[in-house]
Amino acid sequence: MKIIKCRDLGFNCDFITTGSASETGDVKQKIMDHIIEKHMHEKDMSEEDIQDIASRIDVLLSRGCGCGAL
Q: Which pTM value belongs to this model?
């Protein structure tokens, strides 16, 4: 099971997305869609910021335990 929380990425938000290990791409897409829709404009994020978040998501999803804990 893969779990990503918006809070794991530095946002004060309770959004969580989950999926099986084989659904890693879907989990990443769901959290990225949420961040772009809900946080991109409120935080005035650049494309570089979005790429940094995508990289952090990849690290979290690569963890063997499947949790977002750092």
A: 0.84
